[in-house]
Write a structure and sequence with these properties.
- The structure holds 2 protein chains of 2 kinds.
- Chain A is globular.
- Chain A folds into 2 domains: about 160 residues, Thiol:disulfide interchange protein DsbD, N-terminal domain (Immunoglobulin-like, Sandwich), CATH 2.60.40; about 110 residues.
- Helix content of chain A is about 10%, strand content about 45%.
- In chain A, a hairpin with a 4-residue loop joins strand 7 and strand 8.
- In chain A, strands 12, 13, 14, 15, 16, 17, 18 and 19 form an 8-stranded mixed sheet that branches. In chain A, strands 1-2-3-9-6 form a 5-stranded antiparallel sheet.
- By secondary structure, chain B is of the alpha+beta class.
- Chain B has a single domain, classed as Glutaredoxin.
- The longest helix of chain B is centred in the first third of the chain and has 17 residues.
- The chains are: A mainly beta, B alpha+beta.
- Chains A and B meet through strand 10, strand 11 and helix 3 of A and helix 1 and strand 9 of B.
Chain lengths: ~290, ~210
Amino acid sequence: MRCSTASVRFFLVLILGLILLPSARASAASIPHGTVDLIAENQWIAPGHQSDLGLHFQLEQGWHIYWVNPGDSGQPPRAEWHLPTGLTVGDIAWPAPQRLGTPTIVDFGYDDAVMLLVPMRASATLSANQPAQLRAELRVLVCREICISGKAQISLVLPVRSVPPTPDARTRDLFAAARNSLPRAAPADWKFSVSDAKEAFVLTANLGRKVPQATFFPLEESRIDNSAPQKFIPLATGFRLTLLKSDQLLTPIRRLKGVLELSTNQNYVIDAPVGNPSAARQKDGFRFLAK
Amino acid sequence: MKRSTVYWMIFVLAMLAAALPMSAVKFGQPAPDFTGTASNGKTYHLADYRGKIVVLEWHNNGCPYTRKHYTSGNMQKLQKQWTARGVIWFTVLSSAPGKQGYMNASDENGYIAKMGAAPTAALLDPTGAIGHSYTAKTTPQMIIIDPQGIVIYDGAIDNRPTEDVKDIPGATNYVNLALEQALAGKPVETAATRPYGCSVKYPGSWF
């Protein structure tokens, strides 16, 4: 079949146009049993402004990825960024996780879909002459019953303009939902304390009101036994939560950091002092014997 | 010694024993005994190895973290190096039949030969009995037992919790450190770490 010169030219122009079309939404890269997309909240980058990028993961049913503290097994996704001079990114903001796993092995992560927010800062001297090419090499462990490690190259080209940026209507809902799923700072009038009860940490929360439930997700590994049920006792002005200690915790800790989930999208970052830190449980026994 | 003092001491020890947690194996506590059938057809009884240092290595050859240490030759090197110094090394396969990492005896023998692995034996634990008694959570989780049968290390193989072979050079290998210290008669400095890797594929359903 012969193609006319005109139709060949038409297709070349079309393809070229698609390649050059500036877009806040790149095409998704594939990862094992899912995809990941690099998206931006704004239509362009403005020198001197900070804005958010999003790593949008979509997974096949039953598969999951991990929180910053993965729990008993697994590993959080990692991105290595390659950015033009004048652009820098900060640490990932992690939405509150879910408890995943079995009765004996509990992990913290996300199934179905999740967006990790990455703050990006543009220096005031960033040149507005050319679009910015954002690129990251992503490594991610995707698990169902088994785990598969994957790599993906993700990229996004954004224009740079010297006027305040306008939100991208196409990504607005995703960014709004992602921000809503982030743990917030606990209100200043909430009080938390942790007592060291040898085998367990007892977290007492004074919120000034009753709550029906609470789940604690440790931000640091080897603090609590991830798979142990968390005993919840409601109090008139809050609750008490008993968290069994990790087998790996052999030394006393001064603070217990984590995310407290009261209900869906009601998550708070807490960093509570541990009262009268005694030695970890084995050492308690030895000290008792030595007396 | 006065009889009442002896009674008092027995009472204190009994109270102390009652206060100890019953469940998981932990640093400083007796290693649960087991009898395991190995891929070589022999039966191994942990209690027979009092007087020796014993390493338990939880293994799943399909797990990316286990593969990291086998494709690089890192695990085989540790096995050879330490068994040559009198350490008993049991690779433990706690994957249930039909799950990733489950191996019958002849397949496991073929794998050991192909990979040049050199454990004392590879224990087949398809019911997960040995794994559960040690509350093994991941592959490769590493447990070290001293000549008196006490757990002196429980945790990760090293301080780089990734599946990337490139992370092996320069990593702090906790198993090497613990074995060096134990063989020198010193206490193990880093005695418990988070055992990174894949979850052990025990029998039972997943979510």
